[in-house]
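Notes continue from the previous slide.

Worked example: a multi-chain complex. Inputs as given:
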Amino acid sequence: MQRSIVNSYELRNDFPIFRKKINGKDLVYLDNASTTQKPYTVIESITDFYSNYNSNIHRAVYQLAEEATKMYEQSREKIANFINARPEEIIFTRNTTESINLIAHSWARLNLKKDDGVAITEIEHHSNIVPWQILSQEIGTRLEYVGIDENGFLDLEHMIELISSKKIKLVSLSHMSNVLGTIVPIERIIRIAHANGIPVIVDGAQSVPHMPVNVKNMDCDFLVFSAHKMLGPTGVGVLYAKKEYLDKMKPFLGGGDMIKEVFKFHTNYNEVPYKFEAGTPNIADVVGFGAAIEYLEKIGMENIRKHEIYLTDYALESMLSLKYVTIYGPRDPKDRGGVISFNIADIHPHDLATIMNDHGIAIRSGHHCAQVLMQRLDVPATSRASFYIYNTKEEIDKFVNAIKEAGRIFKI
Amino acid sequence: MSDDIYREIILDHYRNPRNKGKLENADVTVHDSNPLCGDEIDIHLKVDGGVISDVKFEGKGCAISQASASMLTELVMGKDLKIVKDLKKEEILENIGLTNLGPARIKCALLSLKVLKVGMVKYYSENDPQSAEQISSESSLY
């Protein structure tokens, strides 16, 4: 088994929430695919902003506003640097969902036409399904699904067949499944799509927080992700797009800050990226996101990935030693992120989550905003444990012991 | 704690539900689901002379939702349909022995009661419109 070089025991001291007790037990937080906990540096950077720099950005000329603007734009630079993009290619949104809706509204709606195909996959989160259904209803695009095999791997042949069919004009897919953990061969898919002149949107909500992602190497046209899944605050999402796309895209929302000049009956829009950031943005939380990026970079994304492979490997091995556990998705931790969906005999995931809660353990139960995948797996729901830098081997032991406890209570 | 929730009787009703299945010639059938956790319940009612002469349920979901549906069918079988409007959530929780559930899980326990109440109102509005309005106004959702 690979060793981890991340000292999660020490890291935990940076997170105030781990002082909290649940039912008298230490909190074991295993719902990181949903949202992550925040270190002091992030929480304090937000307090610091409101205490010492609070003012509106981009417009005013007094010192306070200049400082606030600088902090906001420095966050943009940090995030651009983090994924190897240019600052003007980073648009701040509310979350991944809004980023995808922005692309659907400001690019796809204006560049696709009736009967053009949009290819997505069976592992998508609802946020990468519903906007494309809405687009189909509006302009008559056709939604096509690429399936998965019984081990949770993408049906690459079907993807290639679709891309080569000339019917598809856009591919939008998750880099890492939020249910199965499957990491898709994204670079290969993008290469083949580009060879056929098709742009690719990458949903990086699960991958960007957990592994190195480099937009130049990947060569994606769009990448979307959320701050709150990577130690940052809620309410901040990112849309990365190649500048050539952003320059041609129409605004998403109209209003303040996205304009250059406004006349009675027409407006000249501001330049990229401001054209897509109408109204006062979530300044303090963007600043907080910058602090989260700094924290992650200090640990190193390669190390974070290794730590999660180590935890996932250990968890899979422990869980598979129990006969009554069914695990969904790839078996080799190298093919998946630190997300494990599973079921235990006839125990419904909600009942399991209730039992886990007795032990202070937070896991997710339900459809994980991926009902299309649940239908494919032919299960109403699964339980899901997902890891991050602060999770430890001892916590996995507690989690596996709680599974055994559930087995005892349900007399399995 | 969980040992108090998942007692023998809950597990028994979960694994061996009473009155489960479709009811041919039902007078009324109602479906509802809990979007949060995906629990689903259908209740079929046969009513003769104002009395529930047969009741069956179909559903899928957690042990709490399915066991409470099973126990509810036992509770109302053969009773006057009108008593459904007076059933209180506290009674139901007491009947199934789960008085210490958190807010999220209470919804699981009460889904079948909600479906049954909707079924009762639907029966009266289809078969006895005159008393339907009064019954509907007297019946608290829980």
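Summary box: The mean pLDDT of chain A is 96. Chain A touches chain B at residues 23, 346-351, 354-355, 358, 365-367, 380-381, 406, 409-411 (CB under 8 Å).
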